[in-house]
Amino acid sequence: MAIRRKWMTVAEAAWSLGISANTVRSAIYHDRLLADKIGAHYTIMCHEVERYRREHLGKHGWDERKAKQQEKIHARRVRAADDKAHGWVKDDTSN
After folding, report:
1. Residue in 34, 58, 60 with CA at minimum distance from that of residue 48
2. How many domains does the chain have?
3. Which of 13, 26, 44, 84 could anchor a disulfide with 35, C-beta 3.0 to 4.6 Å?
4. Is 0.85 surpassed by the pTM of this model?
């Protein structure tokens, strides 16, 4: 019967998540991944690794970047419509 541990090392968590050990340490440093420090080494609870996988992996800030990009596009369209409505932009379709 296999014994299932309740904790992982940084290297094991990195392998499990498919990211580098430095990325795991960075997540720990920035409080995105909770860990206990024992001497010079971190231990991470397995359920914490799974929580990190659900909440953080695959996102890479995309939702925030996409929202900002959409706001900029919308603002440009609004400005262009205002400029055209005020006659500040020459309509190139009337050649």
Report:
1. 34
2. 2
3. 44
4. no
